[in-house]
Amino acid sequence: MDGFDNLLGGEYLETEVTDAPVNDENNPTKQQHNHNLYDATQVLENIKSDESWLSELKLASFDHMSDLARANCSKCSKKRKYFCYDCCLPLGDPSKTPKLKLPLSVDVLHYPTELISKSTAIHSRVLARDDVEFKEFPNVPEYNAEETILLFPSEDSCFVKDIDCSKIKKVVFIESQWHNTKKILAHPNLKNVRCVKIDLQKTMFWRYQHHGENFLATIEAIYYFFKEYQQAISNGAYNGEYDNLLYYYTFFYNLIQSSYKHSNKDFKRKDNYIK
Ligand SMILES: [Zn+2]
């Protein structure tokens, strides 16, 4: 078990070379105990002093997150932390987890060899359960091309601000590594679906990938899409309506920041990541 993924409540073995373990503690009991201590005090402090753009989001309170220990999912009974990525249910008191209503329905096309426990798009399903569905490739539905758009940056893609939003009912996101994205895009049911793109943004993601800082984590792309969509339908106004899409993402960002600051361990995945 990678201590880094243990921090995030993952329960899987590392398989990616780029995700080599950075934590050499070998006493799982002690490790878990320490991480719970981090959770309880330092993460919330880090959130308060964070100066990244994530700190400017309008987010629900994180106070109850500090009390969450690893516990059994109410539906499948598996041990989880923060949320169950199989059932897409939050742990702890569900009334304290933000619940979003999205203006479009969302499909996430997920490549099956990618671990769902590492998915960031799954955050959107936990937070906006009624509006988000996951589809395991190659199970791609037949879409109504008039009403559906696919977020994918290519030369032919339109910017969100340039499309006629009035007819759009569904937006599709792809969650896969780059080489598998091409396989998904080649699916015949996507042939007539228009591609849209968002403005260039820099990622805050903690996982290393070699494509550069403009390759976003899926949940970042989902957030930016809905922010731009909202601006497109309301003359540029955006009042944080969909900021809570980044609720878990912001918490995990601060969890990693505070844990690495307080443990004096090097964060080897990305240079200058720990602020
Ligand atoms: Zn579950």
UniProtKB/TrEMBL annotation:
Q: Which Pfam families match?
A: DTW
Keyword annotations of the record: Nucleus, S-adenosyl-L-methionine, Transferase, tRNA processing
Q: Does the keyword Transferase apply?
A: yes
What GO biological process terms does the UniProt entry carry, in alphabetical order?
Answer: tRNA processing
**Reaction(s) catalysed (UniProt annotation):** a uridine in tRNA + S-adenosyl-L-methionine = a 3-[(3S)-3-amino-3-carboxypropyl]uridine in tRNA + S-methyl-5'-thioadenosine + H(+)
Which EC class heads this enzyme's classification?
Answer: transferase
Superkingdom as given in the UniProt entry: Eukaryota
Per UniProt, residues of the DTW domain are 80-261
Task: Report the main location listed first in the record.
Answer: nucleus
Q: Which InterPro entries match?
A: DTW (IPR005636), tRNA_Mod/Golgi_Maint (IPR051521)
GO annotation, cellular component aspect: nucleus
Q: Where in the cell is it found?
A: Nucleus
Enzyme Commission number(s) from the entry: 2.5.1.25
Q: Care to name a GO molecular-function term for this sequence?
A: tRNA-uridine aminocarboxypropyltransferase activity
Q: What does this protein do?
A: Catalyzes the formation of 3-(3-amino-3-carboxypropyl)uridine (acp3U) at position 20 in the D-loop of several cytoplasmic tRNAs (acp3U(20)).
Q: Which family does it belong to?
A: Belongs to the TDD superfamily. DTWD1 family.
Protein name (database record)? tRNA-uridine aminocarboxypropyltransferase 1
What organism does this protein naturally occur in?
Polysphondylium violaceum
